[in-house]
């Protein structure tokens, strides 16, 4: 008789799951029996490749993986997804909402070329994409009665909140907002059985990192600074996302969890 996997019958909704931390989470959770709705925004060629990956993972792990190539920041798209996803067999089954959206403006605060400057509109867009959109998604999934009675909400932040990275101001502002939002969500959504936490990953060589000016220098520093003598990998973060979804993690709420091998200590 085969042993039941820990997350069999449950669902995750992953916002931004076509690469990096989101994709690693899809792989880890699917391997442990969780069904997944993965939402992302990619051009057709990349979307086709992502769908092939998800199909393969679903077959390999005997789970359902529903892929949606849509704008997760658009109210109408969010409403359309929830209407389609909201079926009787999914009621009360969403164990995890993972916010892994990497969309923001990478511009300096001051430069000779005014066209290259970060604007308040850039900051507002980035803040909604990488922070405040989590609140809208949480509220709508909760209103649809889709969350599990012991659900998890997880966001992602970075060390760039507290240290200067070139052209990272808009994202840093968004991530700082996300940290405060996590605190308030942890308190105000707790009566609904939801635990809200934030993961601060070490510097990880993802596609999102490579878009940051000077990212090669960040990679070089991380490789020498980390006490464990290697960079953080997406799988390291996915492992902790998995841990936070277990029953044993039910008392972790409102926490900022460093997943970096001790990199933040130096």
TrEMBL record:
This is SDR family oxidoreductase. The keyword GTP-binding does not apply. The lineage of its organism: Bacteria, Pseudomonadati, Bacteroidota, Sphingobacteriia, Sphingobacteriales. The keyword Oxidoreductase applies. Transmembrane segments: none annotated. Belongs to the short-chain dehydrogenases/reductases (SDR) family. Keywords: Oxidoreductase. InterPro entries: NAD(P)-bd_dom_sf, SDR_DHRS6-like, SDR_fam. Signal peptide: none annotated.
């Amino acid at each position: 008789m085969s042993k039941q996997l820990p997350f069999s019958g449950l669902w995750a909704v992953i916002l931004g799951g076509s690469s990096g931390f989101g994709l690693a989470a899809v792989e880890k959770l699917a391997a442990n029996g969780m069904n997944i709705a993965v939402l992302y925004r990619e051009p057709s060629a990349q979307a086709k490749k992502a769908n092939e990956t998800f199909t393969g993972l679903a077959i390999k792990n005997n789970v359902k993986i529903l892929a949606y190539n849509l704008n997760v920041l658009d109210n109408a798209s969010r409403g359309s997804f929830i209407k389609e996803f909201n079926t009787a067999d999914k009621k009360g089954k969403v164990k995890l909402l993972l916010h892994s959206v990497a969309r923001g403006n990478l511009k300096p605060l001051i430069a000779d070329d005014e066209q290259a400057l970060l604007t308040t509109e850039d900051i507002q867009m980035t803040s909604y994409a990488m922070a405040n959109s989590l609140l809208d998604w949480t509220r709508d999934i909760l209103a649809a009665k889709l969350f599990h009675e012991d659900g998890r909400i997880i966001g992602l932040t970075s060390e760039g909140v507290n240290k200067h990275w070139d052209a990272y101001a808009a994202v840093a502002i968004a991530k700082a907002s996300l940290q405060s939002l996590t605190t308030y969500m942890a308190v105000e959504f707790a009566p609904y059985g939801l635990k809200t936490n934030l993961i601060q990953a070490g510097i990880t060589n993802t596609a999102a990192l490579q878009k940051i000016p000077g990212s090669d220098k960040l990679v070089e520093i991380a490789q020498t600074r980390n006490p464990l003598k290697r960079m953080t990998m997406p799988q390291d973060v996915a492992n902790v996302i998995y841990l936070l979804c277990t029953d044993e993690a039910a008392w972790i709420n409102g926490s900022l969890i460093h997943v970096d091998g001790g990199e933040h200590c130096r």
